[in-house]
Amino acid sequence: MARTPRRQSAVLQTVTIRDVAAKAGVSVATVSRVFNRKGPIREDTFERVMAIAEEMRYVPDAAARSLSTRSTSTIGVVLPELHGEFFSEVIRGIDVAARQGGYHLLVSGSHSNSEEMRAVLQAVRGRVDGLIVMSPDLEPSTLLADFPSTFPLVLLNSRVDGRPSITIDNSGGARAVVRHLASLGHQRIAFLRGPSQNADAEQRLRGYRAAVRAAGIDADRNLELTGNFTEESGYDAVKRMLATRPRPSAIFTANDAMAIGALGALVEAGCAVPGEIALVGFDDIPIARFLAPPLTTVKVPIADLGRRGFELLRDSTTDPSAPSLKLETTLVVRQSCGASRPARPRRTKSQ
Amino acid sequence: MARTPRRQSAVLQTVTIRDVAAKAGVSVATVSRVFNRKGPIREDTFERVMAIAEEMRYVPDAAARSLSTRSTSTIGVVLPELHGEFFSEVIRGIDVAARQGGYHLLVSGSHSNSEEMRAVLQAVRGRVDGLIVMSPDLEPSTLLADFPSTFPLVLLNSRVDGRPSITIDNSGGARAVVRHLASLGHQRIAFLRGPSQNADAEQRLRGYRAAVRAAGIDADRNLELTGNFTEESGYDAVKRMLATRPRPSAIFTANDAMAIGALGALVEAGCAVPGEIALVGFDDIPIARFLAPPLTTVKVPIADLGRRGFELLRDSTTDPSAPSLKLETTLVVRQSCGASRPARPRRTKSQ
DNA sequence: CTCCGCGCTGTAAACGGTTACATCCGAGCA
DNA sequence: TGCTCGGATGTAACCGTTTACAGCGCGGAG
User: Fold this and answer.
1) CB nearest B70 (choices: A8, A107, A345)
2) With a CB-CB cutoff of 8 Å, which residues 226-245 of chain A face chain B?
3) Which of A216, A255, B88, B90 holds its CA 20 to 30 A away from the CA of B107?
């Protein structure tokens, strides 16, 4: 009862390891050994197999190899968003490190709610050897509940017990800003908060509060304005704030996007920056230095975040000691804070 | 001679379709049919298998499925770069469309030279069902040489005979700019070129030339300045140009990055924009509207590029008629061209 | 009552590699 | 010459699915 052998979907390569073996007059094991440079192979056998393989345009099938090996050589990257300077920079950081290490990247973004996020995590798992997850808004511990603790996984910008993670020194950055402004003589420094469920936003807030207390300057809770990381919310918050008295002499926004909005509101109100009110942001997105005046802000090492994330993932498979680490942030003084300094625009990305 | 059975690398799931079948008292075929909703299955069998699978936390193995099915459900995305607003927006466009269609994204970027590019294409192939490739600088036809013409593949922003592609109406956009400037009375419009091996750059140049000729205004070849899409090159070129006479009354740059550099040079020289010299860019990157003055430019539908790319790829597998298409660009008039108009900043990305 | 057809399910052969173990072969040695 | 030993290679089980085909039970037609 001859079965009709299944034939592949036309599109992919037709030449298998068996074809190569037959043509080279060796066994499949030998061909496999040649391709993986494993086990003892005679010089001339090696050459011959390679030549034939080349000639036949043989490329090992990734799926078959994965099935046998139990390892895809790809890692998954799950971000809340794919769009924007910030995330693309993270991905790039991971990409260069990963490719160097012989890994591919399976990315996925745009998961607003946790249902979607969970689904994506499930789908991606099984196709990857490890996962880099960034979930600033959603509580990650619940999302990761049904990942065995042995599954290689590193978190970016959030922490879960027992999982390695890479975070940013948000608090330190915020403290540096407040110290800097205080040293310039500011007594009333307003803080424009980010969304309260966002971990970064909360840490920046805590840094602000700690530094204000430490500097012994005005700690009025009315100085804390609410925003949600969007430019619009920055505009609105500052618009409202300008109607109140006494005004702060400086505004520190929890991210640069809100600083842009804030700047719009200030300019609209005819309020000189930094003359009447100084302005400082957080993130150092590329636009920051093109604002008028160029924005003083906190630089976060975004690409590093990605690179270190990959490295940590790679290492965590061999050494599960989970050495989470925190990356330094640095204050970038431009002109919006009042400590003026010239700045010639530098080269940026094309297109 | 009992072989020691191979056991998986500890990390991944241990429960296979056989385990589920055994526990549910059915055969593997039935479990498979339940999971793929294929073939006739009795209601109660379906429920029981599903329940057991859920309970055992069974997740089908992607590699095995791929091997059997000859289809990963992922598509590859190869870009020259991953960083920046432009590319991240392309990826996002692809991502949302792909996820909706049940596909995953394998991305790869940062290939400066064609050797690297070729290697990446090889590595990615076999792991994906199709490929979306963007290679504005490198000649794509040679890169794609050893891809059988049946391999599903679409090109972004470049064309190769017999391959479906999505391009942007660079020429039309450039013509619109020149027409607009001419209608404002400009007689001498300089053009700041992009790198000559870049296809987009060349098309924009051609559009500029055609429109200048059509408008019957000054077509002096000295009006064509050389640049390479970087901000720096824009700065340098305009700096040099300002030393010559007669000056143009408007500068049209082949992308926004160069416009930023150009603006820097103009401001530095005390040259009023648009008062003395009008300025127009191309791309409409997000920074564009935050420049002082806000930059008039050509908006290219970046996310569409990605989405349409995916759709074309999906369709091309069933219908290989390769309906390449060209996306419209639109002129966005802000203030740098002299046709003033107010603009309230709108909401942008957070963080 | 027999036979047919159909709905549901089971069996086992692929899919294309990797790799444990067996085998072969020639050199070195007693 | 017979034996050992190790390097090079072959054989075939196994990775976890999908799916062609076979089988079974049952209701209705003849």
Assistant:
1) A8
2) 228-232, 235
3) A255
* B13 and A CB contact within 8 Å: yes
pLDDT tens for each residue of B283-299:
998 778 878 788 999 99
Cα B221 to Cα B200: distance, rounded to the nearest angstrom? 20
Residues 41-80/B with CB < 7 A to strand D = 58-61, 64-65, 67-69
- Strand A104-108 vs strand B330-332: parallel, antiparallel, or unpaired? unpaired
> What own/partner pairs with CB < 8 Å and gap ≥ 24 does A154-160 have?
A154/A130, A154/A309, A154/A312, A154/A313, A154/A316, A156/A90, A156/A132, A156/A305, A156/A306, A156/A309, A157/A199, A157/A200, A157/A305, A158/A134, A158/A199, A159/A199, A159/A324
pLDDT digits over B44-73, tens only?
999 999 999 999 999 999 999 999 999 999
In whole angstroms, how far apart are CA A260 and each of A136, A165, A233, A294, A340?
Answer: 22, 30, 10, 11, 19
A122 touches chain B (CB under 8 A): yes
**Of the partner residues B59, B106, B257, the one whose CB lies closest to the CB of residue A351:** B257
Q: Which residue numbers in chain B have pLDDT < 70?
A: 1-13, 110, 319-322, 340-351
pTM exceeds cut of 0.90: no
Q: Is the CB of A16 under 7 A from strand D?
A: no
Q: Does A99 touch chain B (CB under 8 A)?
A: yes
Is residue A333 within 8 Å of A302, Cβ to Cβ?
no
Whether nucleic acid strand C comes within 7 Å of the CB of A62, the answer is no
Token pair belonging to B84: 């920046």
Among A98, A316, A12, smallest CA distance to B67 is for A12
In A11-87, the DSSP E strands lie at 74-78
